[in-house]
């Protein structure tokens, strides 16, 4: 068969479907490129949070929950306008999570149960979830990041797929740390490590990333993928609230799936529709559910299906399309609202309630929690002016995407489990024992898509200078574990004395300085004792609260095994509220 014959036999929509697959692959590749550029040194081709800002769900829920605009919120208008014009194309052409599910569904096709027509009541679940997400946002509880497909994809790729792949390439083939390859295979694998996983990092300067909740995040991802054993794109059809927004908007699009009277009702399109949006006779289309994948147009043996703004001319076959409604009743809407209100206390009433009471009886420097939020969140004083707390304001803006954790150069930012209640799940916290907050680093604030970690200034130099003054916590010594503090208790004889008792590791690494006299946040207090061999001096350590900003490097470098002898806590003095150099910075 010649190429001309093949072109004549080419089915309608085949070129468009090929274009759709190409766009899907390019969008997923672009999504991954932005992901691997979310690393120090931060030199992305464009803003790495672009896909996250394209989500109208994230924009709407953050706007409602925080009652404030954030930089780049207008980007979410782009897919809204295009959906009104072109239909629900975003789910089938752009969404990285949808493309990932399509790839996984392809490999699960042999295991999938045979198609059997069923009622589409499960389509309604995404509307229930959308209503609950919006309802929670009105009560300043932002849970969009748990369901938003772009947040899910970013979190999964950043914390699971990217670290796992890097581990397998490096450790399974024994090339990590081998800077002098022994052969062409080693050279090729090191090239993959260098350019596929960390193209901007210096050779040999990239570490194996680790995230505490990667197992749970992987389990959620696998659950979404394995739902494909039951139905294709199960998550997209039944759970995704972003898909619910696009489904509502796409009803106003002029581009529709149209079926003419040459249709023989063979139902081939129905059996192969990945969204189960086609009616029982093949002519019906559930409004808002079609993602314009063009599979049905290619598969139709009679060329009866087309996608166009209006029916064709008078000489063409008659349009027999049927628009089927999503049977979403008023009773179901009311049930979603009542169910959301009933479950709201489960998320809002948690350990934070007790911590708020602790704030009333403890001073600004007293520990409130071990959960240390990254710099850039709203300070305590600023939050009070808005009638809220710094923690509530942060939770109202955070979408749990993991961008800040991915870009953290020390890997110190980790996702929470339930330490701050259900509403804190997968939000970032600094774990100094894993990695400290780099003194001059502002990357987490630069990549945050919703302003939960908002930049403090426009100019880079001023940005870093302000970050030096932002308090995220305070360090506290455990005198029962600190080596200098325990030295006198252990020292019973002069022959047992060791210079190691005068441990000053945390003081040597402390970067925080007073603006006037360059005094460090950790100070040495000489302590002299009299012995039968004469006076002996032990250099004990203390924290200057007015200077400490809680960066955590002291806890990171503490040589005590297990839990460090100095730990960083969140306190009431969070934000620009610390006294520095005798002058209060507000």
Task: Give a summary of the structure in a few sentences.
The chain has helices spanning 3-9, 14-36, 50-53, 56-66, 77-86, 89-93, 96-107, 125-138, 144-147, 149-171, 184-197, 214-226, 234-238, 241-250, 268-272, 295-299, 330-348, 351-361, 380-385, 390-397, 403-407, 443-447, 460-467, 483-490, 505-509, 553-557; strands spanning 256-259, 284-286, 305-308, 322-324, 367-369, 413-415, 428-430, 474-477, 522-531, 534-543, 566-571, 579-580, 583-584. It is mainly alpha-helical and 586 residues long.
Care to describe what's here?
With 586 residues, the protein is mainly α. It has three domains: 12-258, no CATH class; 373-459, 2-Layer Sandwich (Alpha-Beta Plaits), CATH 3.30.70; 474-584, Alpha-Beta Plaits, CATH 3.30.70. The protein has helices at residues 3-9, 14-36, 50-53, 56-66, 77-86, 89-93, 96-107, 125-138, 144-147, 149-171, 184-197, 214-226, 234-238, 241-250, 268-272, 295-299, 330-348, 351-361, 380-385, 390-397, 403-407, 443-447, 460-467, 483-490, 505-509, 553-557, and strands at residues 256-259, 284-286, 305-308, 322-324, 367-369, 413-415, 428-430, 474-477, 522-531, 534-543, 566-571, 579-580, 583-584. The strands form six sheets. Strands 5-11-8 form a three-stranded antiparallel beta sheet. It has a two-stranded antiparallel sheet with strand order 1-3. It has a two-stranded parallel sheet with strand order 2-4. A hairpin with a 2-residue loop joins strand 12 (579-580) and strand 13. Helix 4 packs parallel to helix 8 (125-138) and helix 8 crosses helix 17 (330-348). It is elongated. The chain starts with a helix and ends with a strand. Residues 3-8, 175-180 and 578-586 have low confidence and may be disordered.
